[in-house]
Amino acid sequence: MGLQTTIYIIVGLTFALYIGIAIWSRAGSTKEFYVAGGGVHPVLNGMATAADWMSAASFISMAGLIAFMGYGGSLFLMGWTGGYVLLATLLAPYLRKFGKYTVPDFFKTRYYSNGAAVVAVLCLLIASITYIIGQMTGVGVAFSRFLQVDKTTGVIVGMAIVFTYAVFGGMKGITYTQVAQYCVLIIAYVIPAIFISMHLTGNPIPQLGLGSHFTGSDMYLLDKLDQVVTELGFAKYSTSVRISKLNMFVYTLSLMIGTAGLPHVIMRFFTVPKVRDARASAGWALLFIAILYTTAPAVGAMARLNLHTTLNKALLTGGDVFAPENNIKYEDRPGWFKRWEVTGLLKFTDKNGDGRIQYYNDKNKAFQAKAEAAGWKGNELVVNRDIMVLANPEIAKLPNWVIGLVAAGGLAAALSTAAGLLLAISSAISHDLLKNFLMPDLSEKGELMAGRIAMACSIIVAGYLGLNPPDFAAGTVAIAFGLAASSLFPAIMMGIFSKTMNRQGAIAGMLAGIIFTMFYVFGYKGLFFIKGTAYFPKPVNGYWFLGIEPNAIGAIGALLNFIVAFIVKNMTAPVPEDIAEMVENVRYPKGAGEAAAGH
Amino acid sequence: MDKEKLEAYWKKNLSVIRNILIIWFVVSYLFGILFYDALNAIKIGGYGLGFWFANQGSEVIFVILIFVYTSIMNKVDREFDVHED
C-alpha cells in the first residue's frame, strides 16, 4: 500500500472515531453543553485537558524549537508544565467549590458586578482569539501537508469536523473526543521517538536515551551534540541561553502564570464531580502532558544530531568537516530530503556551485572566515524547525503506518485545542454576555441555541483567520499567554486568597495588566501587529527595554496587576460583608454542590 | 461551622501551598535557570544536573508535587472535617 493511501486510511479512521463519539455524547442541556454535566472522571478529564492543552505548537513545533534553541528552549518545557502546579494549588479546587459554569461567572459573583464580568469577558476573548488564530493555521498546514489538498480545503475540512462535534456535543462532546485525541497524539509522538532513541543510543526510552552514550562511540549523546554543533560554528547546545538568564526567568514565569490564567484550561476544572477531583485532575493532566514534554527534548536533540551527521560525514568519523568528500553530494541526498524539499520546508541553494551541501552557521564571523578559506560561500540549507517532528519517522526509515500516525497525531493536537478554545469563546458570548448581561430572560433552550450559534460563528471567524492569517500568526501563541497572565490569573487568585479585594481593585488591576502588556508588545511588534507602527526603537544586539522580549512581558504585567489592584482597593469602599463570607466558604470543600448557572 | 476551626484549616492549607511552591520555585527557577551552570558540573550519566532539571527534572517533580498536594489536602480535609460527603 502506498504512503498516501496509508495516511488517508489512518486519518480517516481517527475522524470516524471522533464523530462517532460526538454523536454518542450529544449535549441535551446547557449544563452538559458548558460543563459536560459535571460528571467527568478525573483521569479522563486529565486526558481531555492534556489534549486540549497540547496544541499543534506543542506537537509539531516544540521539539524543533528546542532542537535549534538548545538549552534556551527548555523555558517552554518548564513554562508550559509549571502552570499546572499553580492551577492545582491556587485556583482549581476553589473554583470548583465556587460551582459556576464559566470564568466570567466567577468575576460577576465574586466582584459583585457586571462590570467585572465584562472586563473578564474582554480579556478572555483577547487571549483566546489570539491563541486560536495559530491553531487554525496549524490545522490548515497539517491538512495540506498530509492529505495533499490545498490549504483552503484543508482549513474548511478541519472547520467542518470541529463544527460537528463542538456544536452538537458542547463540552460533553469535546471532552470525550479529546480523550480519544489524546490517545492518538501521544502514541503518534512517542513511537517515532522510541525508534530514534534506539537508533542513536540503543536505549528505547527517549528520556533515558538523551542521557546515554551515542551509539558506536564512547561519548555521551549530549556531549557529541555539543561537539557537532560547535564544529559547524553554531552555539554550544547545552549552554545557549535565550537572550539572558533574566529573560529566561521572566519568560518561564509568563508561560506558567499564563497557563493557569487561560480560560479554556481553567474551565476544565468545572467539569469534575468534586473539589478533590479538581486537585487530582490537574495532576493527571500534567502527568499526561509530561509524557510528551519529557519526550520532546530527546526528539529535538536527537533529530538535530541526526540531521547534521547525515549531511556531513566528518562529524561521525572525526575527519575534516571542510574536506569536500565529507559534505554529501546534493544528488546523493536521501529520499526524505527530496520529499520535504517539495513542501518548501527544506531549501537548498548551491552557493559555491560544488554540487555538495554545506550546512553551517555563517553568522559566526570567526567560523565564516575558516569556511571561506575552504571554499564555502555561505550556509546552503534552510531548515524549517517544524520538520523535526514531522520528518522524523521518514529520517529514521520507519514504516508507512507510523508516518500516517504522525499525520493523525498532528491533526488531533490542532483540532482538540481549537475545539476547547471555541467552547471558551462561545460560552463567554452566549452565557456571560447574552444570558447574564444583555438578555437575562433567555430560557435554557434559548441559551443552548445561542451557545450553538455563537460556536458556529466563532468557527467561521476562526476559519477565516486561519485562511488569511495576519502576518503575526506564528508569534501569537506566546503572546496569548502573556495576555492571560497579566489579566485573568491575578484577579482570580486575589478573589480567592484576599477577602478584602474589591470590585474596583480587581477591575483596575486587570485593565492595568492587560493594557501594559499590549502596550509593550505593540511597541515592538506594531499596533495590533500592523507592520510599521511599532513605536519602540528596534532592539539592537538583542537589547529590549528592561532586557525582556515582548513574548515574555506577561509576568511583569501580572505583577503590575497585583500592585495596582492593592493600591486601588485601599483607596475605595471595602468589600460587602456577604462577599467576604462567600470567599470564606469557597476555601473549604465541604458542601460543594454541582456546578450551577448564574445565581 | 466553627469559625476558628476553619481559620486553622485555611492556615494549614496556606502552609502546605507555601511548601509546595517553594519546591516548585527551586527546581525550575533556581536549578533550571539561575544555578544552571554551577549544577552542570555535577553529572548523572550524560546529563549535567542543571540540564536535567531544565529539560526533564522540573516536569517530573511538578507532577509529583500536585499528587502530593492532593493527597496531603485530602487528609487535612478529613482532619478538619471539611471534606465532601
Please indicate the percent range of residues of chain B in DSSP E strands (runs of 2 or more): under 5%
Shape of chain A: globular
- Biggest sheet of chain A, strands in spatial order? 1-2
User: What's the total count of β strands of chain B?
Assistant: 2
Structural class of chain A: mainly alpha
What composes the largest sheet of chain A? Answer: 2 strands, antiparallel
Most extensive protein-chain contact, per-chain counts = A-B, 49 and 45 residues
User: What Rg of chain A do the Cα atoms give?
Assistant: 25 Å
Q: N-to-C terminal Cα separation of chain A, in Å? A: 59 Å
* Largest sheet descriptor of chain B: 2 strands, antiparallel
Order of helices and strands of chain B: HHEEH
Low-confidence blocks of residues of chain A: none
Helix content of chain B: over 70%
| Overall mean pLDDT of chain A | 85
pLDDT under 50 segments of chain B (min length 5)? Answer: none
Number of helices of chain A: 24
Gyration radius of chain B, in Å: 18 Å
The geometry of chain B reads as elongated
Average pLDDT taken over every residue of chain B: 93
Q: How much beta of chain A, percentage-wise?
A: under 5%
- Please give the alpha-carbon distance between the first and last residues of chain B: 15 Å
3D architecture notes:
The complex is a heterodimer of chains A (599) and B (85). Chain A is an all-alpha fold and 599 residues long. Chain A has 24 helices and two strands. Chain A has helices at 3-24, 30-35, 42-53, 56-69, 74-98, 103-110, 114-147, 151-201, 206-209, 221-231, 245-261, 263-266, 275-311, 314-317, 335-343, 365-373, 387-390, 392-395, 400-438, 444-467, 476-497, 503-525, 554-571, 577-586; strands at 346-348, 381-383. Chain A has a two-stranded antiparallel sheet with strand order 1-2. The longest helix of chain A has 51 residues, at 151-201. Chain A is globular, with a radius of gyration of 25 Å. Chain A starts with a helix and ends in a 13-residue tail after the last helix. The mean pLDDT of chain A is 85. The relative contact order of chain B is 0.15. Helices cover 79% and strands 5% of the residues of chain B. Chain B has helices spanning 3-34, 36-39, 49-79, and strands spanning 43-44, 47-48. Chain B has a two-stranded antiparallel sheet with strand order 1-2. By secondary structure, chain B is mainly alpha-helical. In chain B, helix 1 (3-34) runs antiparallel to helix 3 (49-79). Chains A and B meet through helix 5, helix 10, helix 11 and helix 13 of A and helix 1, strand 2 and helix 3 of B.
